[in-house]
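Revision sheet: structure tokens.
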Amino acid sequence: MKRYQMFINNEWVDAASGQWFESIEPYSGEVWAEIPKGGAEDVEKAVQAAKAALDAPAWRDLTATQRGALLRRLADLVSTNVARLAETEQRDNGKLIAEVSGQVQNVAQWFHYYAGLADKVQGAVVPINKPGVFNYIKHEPLGVVAAITPWNSPLALTVWKMAPALAAGNTMVIKPSEYTSTSLLELAALTKEAGFPPGVVNVITGFGTDVGEPLVRHQDIAKIAFTGGDIAGQRINEIAASDFKKVTLELGGKSANIVFDDADLDQAVKGAVAGIFGAAGQTCMAGSRLLVQRNVHDLFVEMLIKVAGEAVIGDPARHETQVGPIATEAQFRKILAYIEIAKNGGARCVLGGHALTGAAYGQGQFIAPTIFTGVTNDMRIAQEEVFGPVLAVIPFDTEDDALRIANDTMFGLAAGVWTSDLHRAFYMSDRLKAGTVWVNNYRATSFTTPFGGYKRSGIGREGGVDAIKEYLQTKSVWITTKPAKANAFVLG
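Predicted:
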């Protein structure tokens, strides 16, 4: 069993408390690593290291091109260590090794993308309406950025923040979920190997009340970048607002996956399965509400039950496994509670609806892929984020009926549309209140395009050119080229 240390100022250090807590492998149920139990003293040490690095010549005086070169080196190191990083993360959160391996490969691509973007951030010369004045606009880093990241995709969702923040010239303190700290500590080691100066990247571990809240409240933090639930996001936003910290919040969803009768139903079934049973439903973009046009509803549900019912469930370290365990005991219990809420609320469980036990499931916490029909959009199972392999199927009649149902939620992260009608595809995409709309596909992301939500699904965007703007502030510079005599008491 490995005992980890925190990474502060390019050094491995124990928590000031001298305490560790256990990391449990979701499939085996075994303790496999010990994580430092950080606190406010560790937060202070990490923030001060990041603050000092911000003004140290080793980082401050790098050109944007040189920052990009560091990011490229880090990307190459990630590529070299894909297998090790993927295995570490898979053991920590129980996600499929096949998916985690792909995500780690994409991590390298994110670093490469923002390495190239680092020296493409351009200012402007403004033709001012005043004589004898030269004005230009430049973009500067915000300062010390705090990244607080979740347990479902630790590396990927951290790098969505880390790559643009570093490309923009900021320094960072990263607080991973207490359930999944190991892969980010392994990544931190690679930042040192890549040549990042001390204090530019710091990783501190521990629990929300001990580490997360002191980090959010710290007066030297310029920005919080958070991925997680909307309740936690709301709390972070409230605290950050008290001293005008900037925030990027990528929060939850109750995304509608909409199937029309003219869709390729075989492909739509695959998309519906991927949308809710991929990653055992433990993803913010899960297509947890399936809206199906009424005249194909029964047929589509029948097809869906067949495909989902044949899913290979078990050891996530095996490449043939399609559905793995629930990452934490708390989440496992929450999902089962929502299944009972749905049953008691009048929804019909037509597949699954229970936990799985037996030799194939090790000591893990597994829930069978679950499908509810007879759902109306006012039910809790249709309005609240379950974050598990639980699908609510809702019939609809017309395009506008589907839009009314899809948009009738406090969330607005994503949506899917399945149709062969191009006009319908554009009509629905224009009117869906969601930050991402997939047409005839689902759950695709890329470093080249922004991702984020409407309403309670968050603030700001991650990915693409938009993301680096989230980590910059704008400065306007006025230079007098021809001094003019003017009334000093009158605004010029």
